[in-house]
């Protein structure tokens, strides 16, 4: 047995069931299985497989043992590797030359370029390529060979192929009576391009050549996390790496003199806390566990050997219509199939080609109208055409869910899987991801009707009560159920339809309107209900359309209307602030070059970026009372969105998510009832223009006015608003949202659009299907060919040049740095290292000459003393520093070789994310210069922030008092020169106050503080995203003119600084979890789990607290609000009423923790960073008492036109094919003051104790 192997121990959970439990890994993660797994798809995981950042080095095959995982079970369940053949199989091609030429043709883009020519030359010059091999070769022959080639088995077998079929639609007519539906005229709809579902499943599962053949999780499991106990960690832990969950470098005591390993040994744990359930993927979700338990209870099929495993294959479905080009009306309606047993980190990448194209649904042909006219002597009505569109969709799925598939659904199918294990596989439809129009089709229901939700029977007039106790009860008690009574009602309505009754007549609607159904039985109901399946449960929430392009888009649009009602000055100020917004990461936050308020056809990623950055940009643009309400709203929306998009949830974060959902709903209602009525909002110019266009399309005879109409805020009356309350429970059921977000399917649209460009644009559906098969075949052969295309090689080189691109930045506000100090590309960084700095000596700094040249710059005033302190501390260890600091003799013992420093343009920081992936930040003093480090033990806040001025290395030694033989040797140390921030203690911030933490630079004129210092790169956690406080303006009081301290491109001036910066907690999932706390991959560093629970509560004020400094510029109030500032504010009242008892400037006197993580942070891990002194602790004042629940009787004033403002016309929804613009959009992607304080006790029973 290997020294790294782990043993599975069985521990009976009950007299009836035995549990197989793995040992916890370095992160405290372990699994529980109901059956002992034969193989583990993660047994061969390496650091490569969890390293997502492009700047991380990918180990070669020879490096795999160094990186390989030791996190899981035993060698007995380790995977086996397929033997590789010495002679590659090139499929339909005779040799490598022919294959590489065709692979080049299909692998390149459709436009000729110099890069494409270089690719071709590389193919011709590749080893093994011979022109003689092309004897008799022609492109058409090779194309035909790809079309007709059949593999003996696997994905390209004869059974698995594309078919062209038709479906029949029965045509009803009012007044035309038929004995039964069978007697009614039927119209054949041709053009259904599809693959048979069961042969597709068999070919994929049995494919031994697939790189995914050993990657399937056949047995579901419960995943648990044993978090570090509070107070158990007393020092900075070693950097844990994914896969192993253990230290990636050798550990040493803090007195070590080695510069290559500065981290102390891993802290010992106290008694382990109770394990916490973890949700990540389909195969550790409740639905998968329930399905597995069901098949284990089934009797075994006679004849199956005892060793045959009975397993579930979860099928994840996506469908959505898309436009294939920017011009014209060519569209495609594909159905994509994914296997939930495959990790989401694989199937979520379009480049992995894990999506299987199942079918392309035909639209309603125009010929149907001719057939209807010829049959009935009149044109079909609009309602009839709607019926036919819905019917086509159901008939397609009835054909896909054929008898062969349903036989396998009931009894399973015996397969020898790609890993060589014989299993009886039971396919199960797990989720169906679609936008609202598509969900309506699947559920065979009426859109935007009385019961507008496809998962529950929530009345439309109760939607605005979302988040209330009554709403929660309705969601639990009014779930849609596919009962026999419902099916019988649908059949009666359908029977009456073909007896000649009107489709909207009472003989039909009396049977269907109670649940807003149509006289059509869903194909999923017809096929799955005999097995006790409630198909409504597979309809997954859609984060992209329901929130990013739904609720948040609606809120953002109305905020722009409110600014327009204030006047143009407010709009222009907002646009100006957004243009000055700094960037973050490689492309997480991009530059907003254009006016944000007027941009059209934005993708979901654009609205996501607006949500992340909008709080500082919107601050102060409205009157104080409304500004506070909007700030609360924006925080709650960003917080909800961050929780919804987490790739790893725990039971704790899900409880926080439920509380956040309630807070978000309350914030939206408060905004709608107290703030919106004050503004006479009208359509934006772009909205008015779009309305006119839609009207012209609908009717050419109606003249539409371009005058902007009055527009009210109606988001809280829509289905998308209602749907947000379903997310926490659905994550428990099916895994995190990245398993079923429609964004996955939208990304796959890229491939069919490329295929379309290679067709002749006539009957292109079948051509696209064939090209999809060719692409899959070529990709399969490419795995066996040793040649790597030049484009792939260039892509890898591009990853190595990311640092260069980031060094140059994306702004043209300042010229690029001189050529001699421009960044040079770093080589890819080994993922097990915490940071990487170039080894270059090109940018040499003669220390004393440089100090002389910058003698008048305040940044270098204490440069040498601070540097010497840092070096002594690094070489002797932090514990060697006396309380009074190092003596002069000790500082004089520092020697710098040749008095030279070496400057570098970038430093890469590798870190383990909350979901145990390996990620990377690039820190650049000119573009992305802000960092976060752990604060020392005596600080009440978990993190300190700094701005990097320069990155250096130097060769140093120490020969002073206490020197050892090791310290007297020359050694290289890397260090970062920074300018420190400190938090604004007068500003209540964090989750409980609904505000971003606010910082300002340390005052350089205060002798008790050191504004500059040096940081060991090993102490940098990762990059930080700090947004200027635009509303508060700039100041010259903190530091005099300094070109050295103000190198950041976004600063814009050498003479002043922004008065404040805000810490953007929402910029990225890992950043968010570091502020929320409880990140699994963070291993208790920063904010622990117990503290994170407090972030579910909110502290509210019964006074309007002015949060702005005296110097902040305000935009003049140019619009008269509809309601006076002293008027009544609505049914629920406001938490921000004016209070004459506030302090002189309205600031809150209490000092709360930074990010709400301080009060329960005792014993947390800290790093002592240099050159920052003075106490910044404070006490929290004020009484806490329970918040009374608000009255949530909302006035319902929603109309059908208001709903369609959010969803589009009903006809488009029925069609499942949205307008062209919609489809393109989806694809494009504190001095004191008295205050009454009370704590929101929502979910207090769940363990969220108030502070």
TrEMBL record:
Amino acid composition bias (Acidic residues), ranges on this chain: 1189-1214, 1227-1238
Biased segments, Polar residues type: 1-12
Biased composition (Basic residues): 1095-1108
Biased composition (Low complexity): 237-265
InterPro entries, per database record: Plavaka
Highest taxon above the source species: Eukaryota
Xref: Pfam families: Plavaka (PF18759)
Chain positions covered by the region annotation Disordered: 1-62, 233-273, 806-839, 1085-1240
Comp. bias (Basic and acidic residues): 32-41, 1144-1154, 1215-1226
Protein name per the record: Uncharacterized protein
Organism for this UniProt entry: Ganoderma sinense ZZ0214-1
